[in-house]
Specification:
This protein is of the alpha+beta class. The protein folds into two domains: 3-120, Roll (CBS-domain), CATH 3.10.580; 128-199, ACT domain (Alpha-Beta Plaits, 2-Layer Sandwich). The protein is 35% helix and 28% strand. It has seven helices and eleven strands. A hairpin with an 8-residue loop joins strand 9 (158-163) and strand 10. Helix 1 (20-30) packs antiparallel against helix 2. The longest helix is centred in the first third of the chain and has 12 residues, at 50-61. The chain is elongated and about 75 Å long. It starts with 7 loop residues before the first strand and ends with a strand.
Length: 200
């Protein structure tokens, strides 16, 4: 999935000549926590967060401080065709809540942690009417395909699959299915030598 399908297009922006109060007012009125700073040609020149602005508000009242003084210059950016995995890694590594999206130096969007979470929830089918079954795969290379076939042979339609980090020999796999009768699947798995550790 590419960033351009998730990003907020044509996000709210502000000019670097604006005051800290102007930026805070704009964030408050639009209920946002990240604000790209652009020039008159919509080229990205900086980035400010709500935390930055709150910390600078009092000092800005007794000085000539503007956004230019506190904005993040040369912020981390993404391109519209970057994939969601790349964005997730950057957000996690740099501990940021939002990243501007640029194309040919022009700001075209912004991607936030909230957008990423919504995408994850959608991809995992967490808000759909669903069933779930966790199965111990062990160390057999054919176990995943075998368990998937058993689920499908017993009227289970797989929506998404998640794997726990390989820190133990159990190798537990989480299958989310469209709502179905889960007991026949558990029985079939047990009869084939697989353990369902949790299901509903």
């Amino acid at each position: 999935m590419q960033i351009k399908t998730l990003m907020i297009k044509d996000p709210i922006t502000i000019l670097e000549s604006a005051s800290v109060k102007d930026a805070l007012d704009r964030m408050t009125s639009h209920s946002i926590r990240h604000l790209p700073v652009t020039d008159h040609k919509k080229e990205l020149i900086g980035f400010v967060t709500l935390t930055d602005l709150k910390q600078a508000f009092i000092p800005s009242m007794v000085s000539d401080m503007s956004l230019k003084d506190i904005m993040i210059k040369n912020p981390i950016v993404l391109y519209p065709d970057a994939d969601i995995e790349t964005a997730a890694k950057i957000i996690y590594k740099h501990k940021v809540g939002g990243i501007p999206v640029v194309e040919n130096k022009k700001l075209v969007g912004i991607i936030t942690v909230t957008d990423m979470l919504e995408a994850f929830i959608s991809m995992m089918g967490l808000l759909t009417n669903s069933s779930r079954i966790d199965v111990v795969l062990g160390d057999s290379p054919k176990a995943f395909n075998d368990v998937s076939r058993i689920i499908q042979d017993n009227a289970g339609e797989i929506i998404s699959v998640g794997m726990e980090p390989l820190e133990t020999d159990e190798n537990i796999c989480h299958f989310r299915l469209k709502r179905c009768e889960i007991e026949p699947i558990v029985t079939a798995l047990t009869e084939s030598g697989y353990e369902a550790t949790d299901y509903y």
